[in-house]
Amino acid sequence: MRAGQPFYYLPDMDYGERDTIFVPFFGVQTATITGLSRLARMADAVVLPVITRMLPGGQGYVVSIGAAWADFPGESIEDDTRRMNAFIEGEVRRLPEQYFWLHKRFKTRPPGEKSPYSK
After folding, report:
1. Is-contact 101 92, C-beta < 8 A?
2. SS (H, E, C) 17-86
3. Shortest CA distance to 111 belongs to which of 26, 8, 13, 31?
4. pTM for this entry
5. Spatial separation of the C-alpha atoms in residues 42 and 34, rounded to whole Å
6. Measured between alpha carbons, how far is 73 from 44 in angstroms, rounded to an integer?
7. How do residues 78-110 score in pLDDT, each as one tens digit?
8. What is residue 87's DSSP assignment?
9. Main-chain dihedrals φ then ψ at residue 78, nearest 5 degrees
10. pLDDT tens digits, residue range 8-58?
C-alpha cells in the first residue's frame, strides 16, 4: 500500500474477539474487525469499495470498483466500522445469492449472549 499498490481486503469475517467491536450487521450486534479503518489511517489510504460477483456456470467473475469513500476514515473507528458493515449489508441485500452464507458470521457474541449456532 505504501508503494501505491492496491490492496484487496475482505473485512466481513468473524475472527473472534481480537481487534473486533460489536456493530450492527443485519440488525444483529456482530463482532467486526476494525482493520479497514486502522489500515486506512496508518497508510493514509484511499478506500475504494470492490464487489466481486460470480458469473453463472463457473464462467468467471465480474469485479466492480466503486468511487472512493469520502471522509474515510472518519471521526472514529466505531463509526467507520458501522459504515463498512452498512455498505456490505447493502451489497448483500442487492445480491444475496452471492454472499458466503456458510461462514458463521455471527458466532462471536457479546458477553452473555448465546451463539445462534449452538444447539
Report:
1. no
2. CCCEEEEEECCEEEEEECHHHHHHHHHCCCCCCEEEEECHHHCCEEEEECCCCCCCCCCCHHHHHHHHHH
3. 31
4. 0.91
5. 12
6. 9
7. 999 999 999 999 999 999 999 988 888 999 999
8. H
9. -60, -45
10. 888 888 888 888 999 999 999 999 999 999 999 999 999 999 999 999 999
